[in-house]
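Need residues for this backbone.
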């Protein structure tokens, strides 16, 4: 027994490389290769049907020149940013933090009940979420029933306020994730620090802004990055709820990309749009880290 304890373990870099090879292979196949293929196809005239589907050529920056000259693309970028800011950065982020703060001092049973109710929205598939909110905002849905009780005329929510409908649906669907992140982060704030701030006479708002948020800013940045990337790629919920319309009023980049790649059969052009979507996510992630002064 004593001999085994005293036995020295020699370090071999080749052994470490051998153990890491499966991980590197999986990352290469499922992450690096798709990104490289996307990058390559975005500079080609690849199409789903026709001559270009079997005879693909390198077209340089043609797809990107066409894209930035297209008013529909610029509109979809604007719709994407509006949807991202109001549904994720403001809606899910702020509401998740508020719920986590309100539940912080509540009894365990109360936290469990509210937590389960909020998480139901998160675990519900996007297509089901879309049908739930379609029923809520339809002409004879719950929203108009409540408006009728309050004395208002029925409103065609999905026609006159389509962006509001998809924003509310995404907030309901994704707030639970932010709530869970902030519940875990708030639990790591030392009670001595909060008690010292209370003794100094700091109000609840001052303690939140001056003490709590600076301590959990790493979790804030992580949450913002994750919900931003998730919201940028959201397709099913919007497409099933409004189809990107009416017109282009809810046509975000994923829907515009789908229309170009699979309705107009321009796969090369569609992958160029996906590259722009990836670039927006990267820029937003670095912006969050820079603004919050979080190091990675």
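Answer:
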């Amino acid at each position: 027994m004593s001999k085994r304890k005293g036995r020295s373990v020699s370090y071999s870099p080749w052994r470490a490389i051998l153990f890491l090879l499966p991980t590197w292979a999986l990352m290469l196949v499922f992450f690096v290769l798709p990104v490289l293929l996307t990058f390559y196809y975005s500079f080609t005239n690849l199409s789903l049907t026709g001559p270009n589907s079997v005879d693909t050529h390198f077209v340089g920056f043609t797809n990107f020149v066409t894209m930035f000259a297209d008013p529909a693309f610029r509109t979809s970028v604007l719709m994407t940013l509006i949807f991202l800011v109001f549904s994720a950065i403001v809606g899910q982020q702020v509401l998740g933090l508020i719920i986590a703060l309100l539940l912080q001092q509540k009894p365990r049973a109360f936290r469990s009940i509210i937590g389960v109710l909020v998480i139901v929205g998160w675990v519900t598939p996007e297509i089901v979420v879309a049908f739930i909110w379609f029923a809520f905002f339809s002409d004879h849905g719950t929203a108009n029933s409540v408006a009728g009780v309050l004395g208002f005329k029925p409103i065609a929510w999905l026609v006159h306020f389509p962006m509001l409908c998809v924003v509310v649906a995404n907030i309901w669907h994704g707030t639970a994730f932010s709530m869970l992140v902030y519940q875990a982060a708030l639990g790591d704030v030392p009670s001595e620090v909060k008690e010292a701030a209370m003794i100094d006479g700091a109000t609840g708002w001052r303690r939140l802004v001056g003490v709590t948020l600076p301590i959990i800013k790493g979790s804030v940045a992580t949450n913002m990055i994750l919900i931003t990337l998730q919201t940028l790629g959201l397709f099913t919920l919007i497409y099933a709820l409004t189809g990107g319309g009416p017109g282009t009023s809810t046509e975000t980049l994923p829907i515009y990309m789908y229309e170009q790649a699979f309705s107009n059969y321009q796969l090369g052009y569609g992958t160029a749009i996906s590259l722009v979507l990836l670039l927006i996510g990267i820029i937003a992630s670095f912006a969050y880290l820079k603004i919050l002064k979080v190091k990675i």
